[in-house]
Amino acid sequence: MKQLLLLSGKGGTGKTTVATGLIQLSQAKAYADCDVDAPNLHLALGTFDNHTTKPYYDLPKAVIDPNRCTECGLCYQVCRFDAIAENPYRVTAHLCEGCTFCTHVCPAGAISLEETVAGTIELHTRDDETFSTATLKMGSGTTGLLVTEVKKQIKDKAEFAILDGSPGIGCPVIASLTGVDLVLMVAEPSLSGLSDLKRVIQNARQLQVPICVIVNKSDVNEELTERIRHYCAKEALPFLGTIPYDREAVAAINSGQSLIERGGPASEAIQEIYHKVMKELEAL
C-alpha cells in the first residue's frame, strides 16, 4: 500500500480541504484522519453504511483503594506530577503519568495501576471504501500511539491511501510520518506558515520521507508565496503549485461538500496538483 500524507505545520492552512479534494479525485478506497485531537475530515465525506467504535486505553493510571490506605502520606511525598491529593488521599487521573513510584513506596499495598479510557477509535465503511479516525479525550496523552492505531485500521485495505495529518510538529505528526511514502506539505503564505513549514520538513527529512510542497491561498500574500517557492528551490523540494483564495471553498465547507463538487478556481488548481502528486508517487 502506498500512503500519501498531508501536513501543514500550522493549523488553518486548508490541509483538510485539499485532502478531501484529493480523496475524491483519486477515488481512494482507504483514507484516515490522523488529527485525533480535533478530527474533521468526516465533515465533507458524506455518510457511511457501517461503522464500529471501540475504546482507546491510555497508559495505566494509579488508583488508591480507600479501604486499604493508611494515610501515611508517602505517595503524596514522592509524586512529582502533583497527581495525588490529600484528605482523603486520591489520584487525579489526568495528572498521573503512570510512573509507578507511588505503588512501590506504599507500605499497605493500597495503590494499583488501572487502564483508563482515553478516547475512541472509529472505523467507517461504504461499499469498498474504508475510513479510519479517532477522538482523544481532552487532557489525555499518548496521541502518537492513537495515531498509530488509526493507521493500522486501513493497513492493506487498498493499494493507495490518503492520510490527513494534524497540525504542529509533535507526537501525532511523527506517528503520522512513520511508514508513509510521500508527504504533501500544504503551506500558507504567512511568516508563521513558512516557519512551521521548515520545521515539519526537518522532521520528515529525519525520517527519510520524500516531500513535496504546495501553497494554499497563495494570492493573499504573493511575496511570501514567492519566498516559499524560492525556499523549495534552494532545498531541492518539488514545488507542485499554488491554490488561489476562493470563496467557494468557504461555501463548500459550510455546506459539508468537497471543493471539487463546487468547482471554481481553487477546485481547478487542486485538480492540477493532483496529477502532479500522483506523478511524484509513481516515481518512488
Entry keywords:
2 domains, Rossmann fold, single chain, nine-stranded mixed β-sheet, 284 residues, 10 helices, alpha/beta
Question: Can you walk me through this structure?
Answer:
- The chain folds into 2 domains: 2-55 and 119-282, P-loop containing nucleotide triphosphate hydrolases (Rossmann fold); 61-114, Alpha-Beta Plaits (2-Layer Sandwich), CATH 3.30.70.20.
- Strand 5 (84-85) and strand 6 (90-91) form a beta hairpin.
- The relative contact order is 0.20.
- It is α/β, with parallel strands linked by helices and 284 residues long.
- The chain is elongated.
- The longest helix has 18 residues, at 265-282.
- The strands form 3 sheets. Strands 3-8-9-2-10-1-11-12-13 form a 9-stranded mixed sheet, with helices on both faces. Strands 4-7 form a two-stranded antiparallel ribbon. Strands 5-6 form a two-stranded antiparallel sheet.
- It is built from 10 helices and 13 strands.
- 35% of the residues lie in helices and 25% in strands.
- The mean pLDDT is 92.
